Amino acid sequence: MKKILSLILAALMCAALLTGCGGDGGSKDSGGAKDSGGDAGKEILVIVKNSTAPFWISVMDGAKAAGQELGYNVTCKTPVDTAEGSGNEQQSILCEEAIVSGVNCLVIAPVDSEAIIPVTKKVNEAGIPIVNLNTKISDDTQYKTFVGLENVNQGYDTAKALFEAMGGSGKIFIIEGSTGAQTSIDRVTGCEKALAEYPDIEVVAQQSANYSRADALNVVQNLLQSQPDVDAIFCCNDEMALGSAEAVDAAGKTGQIMISGQDANDDAVAALKEGKITITSYGNPYMQGYTAIQAAIDVLEGKSVESFYEVATKVVDSSNADTFKDN
């Protein structure tokens, strides 16, 4: 009886895994290669951080397109709770499902770079190779290759552009992403590198807003109560930049406080054109997803893979907001 129950449980977990993208964010077909009938060796699972942020939607679109074009079945999954920073436990559950279902390769952008390690060890022990996407797992022995930006450089370039726009002096807030996320750590490190070159710029507050627009709105509203004369806000992603812009607007300071984001999602570029934010930087999320699948296929087919596949980024401001994706 126990053996029968175990088989039923495994079947149910496999069915849940293959329902497609998004968890509660909207389950749908993953858009992988068709007519494969579950070809042996061609199942790739992509786990990202949430299903609502435009950045991650674009990452999944790129991954699905690569699967269709290259003949592999790509399934995308996200934590049920789509608020970034709260999904690490659910990511672990998804990884456990990957082991039960026997996918051939796992592509993952971890919510927490350190906390995900115990379950990635289990994935590796099950003989499933890992491609690390966007946010580095703290232990580089856990994955075959990393695909993403050089986030320190992105943070540096974005901060430097912001500081130049400020005229090289003034007060700033630094709004971090999720605590423990390597992208946030690296982008803040890049900002700090730029700060070393601008001694007349002072950081008057530094706080996490969990990569969330709503959290950033609340955080910046509170910070403006104690630091109303801040000149600029450096944010580790666009969603937080947009939340910061809402807080600045509510305080009647739009146009007085400069704001930088990172990702160049559609909402942020529209806000930039309206003068609500000042600078963002393009991380080409579609190509991050696409390249991760290319790398996963190389791993599965026994081809040589590099340790890092860098997707280029560029600073976006009012001068190139209409053309940055084309040049």
Describe the structure.
- By secondary structure, the protein is of the alpha/beta class.
- It is 42% helix and 16% strand.
- The protein has 10 helices and 12 strands.
- The protein has helices spanning 2-17, 54-70, 88-101, 117-125, 151-165, 182-195, 213-226, 238-250, 266-273, 285-300, and strands at residues 43-47, 73-77, 105-108, 130-133, 145-148, 170-176, 201-208, 232-235, 258-260, 280-282, 308-310, 314-316.
- Strands 2-1-3-4-5-11 form a 6-stranded parallel sheet, sandwiched between helices.
- Helix 1 packs across helix 3 (88-101), helix 3 (88-101) runs parallel beside helix 4 (117-125) and helix 7 (213-226) packs across helix 8 (238-250).
- The longest helix has 17 residues, at 54-70.
- It is elongated, with a radius of gyration of 20 Å.
- The N and C termini lie far apart (63 Å).
- The model is unreliable at 1-38 (pLDDT under 50).
Query: Helicity range of the residues?
Result: 40-55%
Mean pLDDT: 87
Q: How are the strands ordered across the major sheet?
A: 2-1-3-4-5-11
Number of helices, counting only DSSP H or I runs of 4 residues or more: 10
Number of strands: 12
In terms of structural class, how would the helical and strand content be classed? alpha/beta
Residue stretches low in confidence (pLDDT < 50, at least 5 long) are: 1-38
Distance between the termini: 63 Å
Question: What Rg do the Cα atoms give?
Answer: 20 Å
In percent terms, what proportion of residues is strand? 15-25%
Biggest sheet character: 6 strands, parallel
- Overall, the morphology is elongated
Q: What is the H-and-E element order? A: HEHEHEHEEHEHEHEHEHEHEE
